[in-house]
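Note to self: keep these together.
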Amino acid sequence: MSKNFFPVWASYVVALLAGIYSAFGLFLSTTTQTVTAVTPQGEQVSLYGQGLYRHDSVFKAGILRGTDAVTLFVGVPVLVIAARLASQGGLKARLILAGVLAYFIYNSASLALGAYWNEMLLVYISCFSLSLFSFIPLFQSIEIPALAQAIRATMPYRLLAGFCAFSGLSLLVWLADILTSLTQGKPPAHLDHYHTEITYVIDLGILLPAIYLSSVYLWRRKPQGIRMAAIILILLIFTGLVVAGQSVVQALDGIIHTPQEYAAYVIPFVLLSLIALGLTFTLFRNISKA
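Structure:
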């Protein structure tokens, strides 16, 4: 593969853009007067009042800053390394880069659509666009015939299929939130002054179908399943890191969840991330060098 392959050099630009917006999110120190917003339902919401996320709620700001920490200190370096490896043209390296780019698509889309308007909006949009249009040709470059030849006979298709199917169940917690809110006739908890929760849209509308489509392919021992599973597993690893980072930053901000909330929204994603890490190594060990 040529070193001028678009997804490779574009990934370096994505890393730069993500480094900029995550650093601003973590370290920008501008302060405004703390204010209270009122939602359409008449509920009062305390805004963070400082830095890039000064107009976001205190609850949401901790989530955003925790994610920024993972993006800056883990995501950006891993993306640069993955792009460097992919420039050498290996099949494994391209699979890894695709998985890492999937995280940046998710992250930049979440910020562009979910964070309250701030000065980084154009950076979010640029990062999202470049990540997406890098991911598409990279995914297409991982051709099924070549992948099928590289997969060893020891690839644990059924194990991967079962894990993907099981991990998809964790996303149903968002469906429970939505149905509970619809039944009670009020917005979900912590929606605050936002119009919707973008995580619900991405996880239920994109990730959940992708996970179960991958499970079906894997159960049928199709190489398409391996291509999708590699990306999903890497994304799950990042998800656990992000959830842990969010919880730590929120705790530093004085937001301590109930044991039930940690059990429903934190621990499952962290455990799935750890399992996904092990299965990622297993998956790549069963792909020959190509």
